[in-house]
Amino acid sequence: MNPSKAKDPRTATLLSAILPGAGQVYNEKIWKVPIIYGGITTTAYFVEFNNRRYQLFRDALRISRDPNIDPSLNPFPNLNEDGLVRNVNYWRRNRDLNYMIFVIIYALNLVDAQVDAHLSAFDVSDDLSFELKPAYENLYAGSGLIGLSFKINF
Prior knowledge:
Elements: H1 9-18, H2 22-26, H3 33-65, H4 81-118, E1 129-138, E2 144-153
Antiparallel strand pairs: 1-2
Helix pairs in contact: 1-4, 3-4
């Protein structure tokens, strides 16, 4: 452990909660910020894309069900009501899934900031290593034992 490099997990989490990626900057892991914002931006784009399609098919379904509205206003005259309902459900489900993905990315941002702050004081120098190699041990009566040897250096 290296206490001089220790970061406060609460501060890192709070910073990331207020501004996604700020906890990673606090933890000096700036390379993670574009990944976070790439995920957030991509998800926001797909939320908006799917929501536009959902609203378009929802409005077309309303037009097809309302006898007081001119049917020529329906942007999908070749789709029957069942096809419109399927499309409304499809685009709504995709939009809602992208909302969930957005929340997951935000939560992973918080978890990453906190875990990285917790691990900031641990020593990861070059003298830490482990070695895994096959081992063979001779036993009495001429038989042998085959296994693996695991060695850790601190």
